[in-house]
Write a structure and sequence with these properties.
Layout (H helix, E strand, L loop, with lengths): L1 H6 L6 E3 L28 H9 L7 H7 L4 E6 L15 E5 L3 E5 L8 E7 L4 E8 L31 E2 L7 E4 L8 E2 L3 H7 L7 H11 L4 E3 L12
Helix pairs in contact: 3-5, 4-5
The protein binds heme C (HEC).
Length: about 230
């Protein structure tokens, strides 16, 4: 059920592949091999925490992203309107989709040190979570739910509607999922050019995040299922 919500056959738009070794000639990725732990893709927020806790410290978002098994299913959006707004069309917000989980990152701007999570509990609703990086400590299982705005609402609930406490998950909330407005989807292919032209001296973190996404095996461009709301629906 959840799988169909995210990756229905019709939702699969394009497949992009990078060279076998995953990296362009003459530009080795600076991401350490100790990040490449393999294993199964995280299908829940607890799975992601477990993965984070098995990676080296201090842990960057890049190391975490590079660790994920390939192919990566990506949705890019240039929406300026979210907790993690896209900084520009060169720096879209990027969602990494597995069957059970949505991870959200931005390569630059105020959200670049945040990893956001949404774990599907139905076709249209997700448990939300957020973590600041770099991660220095071993995370506790409730670390991603520390996002209360006031007594009754989380920061996420400001935009994601119909927020309720998640049963059986201390501190966590479920709210409506949202997909990008149709005209806010951004293409994944130009990200390869952004990586090729990246200025490693002056925008190191951004280059590393692009490398973490694109240098470690194939990526494919996907879309959210139409039944997921957009912000203005
Ligand atoms: C200012 C409004 C706003 C706030 C606040 C907000 N979001 Fe979102 N979120 C959006 C919009 C709009 C989308 C649709 C995709 C897009 O256009 O970026 C979205 C989509 C998402 C998605 C894709 C899947 C899903 O379940 O919706 C994730 C993951 C996500 N947000 C995480 C979060 C988390 C975690 C928080 C709280 C820490 C949060 N968002 C707070 C506006 C917001």
């Amino acid at each position: 059920m959840r799988r169909a919500a995210v990756l229905g056959a019709a939702a699969l738009l394009t497949s992009l592949t990078v060279a076998c070794d995953g990296q362009s000639e003459g530009r080795p990725s600076p991401i350490p091999e100790s990040c490449l732990i393999g294993g199964a893709a995280p299908q829940s927020i607890p799975d992601a925490i477990e993965r984070i806790n098995s990676l080296p410290r201090p842990l960057s978002i890049s190391c975490f992203v590079a660790s994920l098994p390939r192919p990566l299913s990506l949705v890019a959006t240039n929406s300026p309107f979210s907790a993690q707004p896209a900084a520009s069309s060169e720096n879209p917000r990027i969602f990494i989709l597995t069957d059970g989980l949505v991870l959200s990152i931005v390569p630059a701007g105020s959200g670049a040190r945040l990893l956001e999570f949404a774990e599907w509990v139905s076709d249209t609703r997700t448990i939300k979570g957020e973590l600041p990086f770099p991660v220095e400590e071993t995370l506790t299982e409730d670390a991603p739910y520390d996002v209360l705005f006031n007594d009754t609402l989380t920061n996420c609930g400001l935009c994601h509607r119909n927020e309720d406490p998640a049963p059986d998950r201390r501190g966590a909330f479920i709210s409506d999922a949202m997909r990008p407005e149709p005209d806010h989807y951004a293409a994944v292919a130009p990200l390869f050019d952004e990586l090729e032209n990246c200025d490693w001296d002056n925008e190191t973190e951004r280059c590393e995040i692009l490398s973490a996404l694109l240098d470690f095996g194939p990526v494919e461009e996907v879309a959210f299922a139409d039944e997921v709301d957009t912000f203005f629906e």
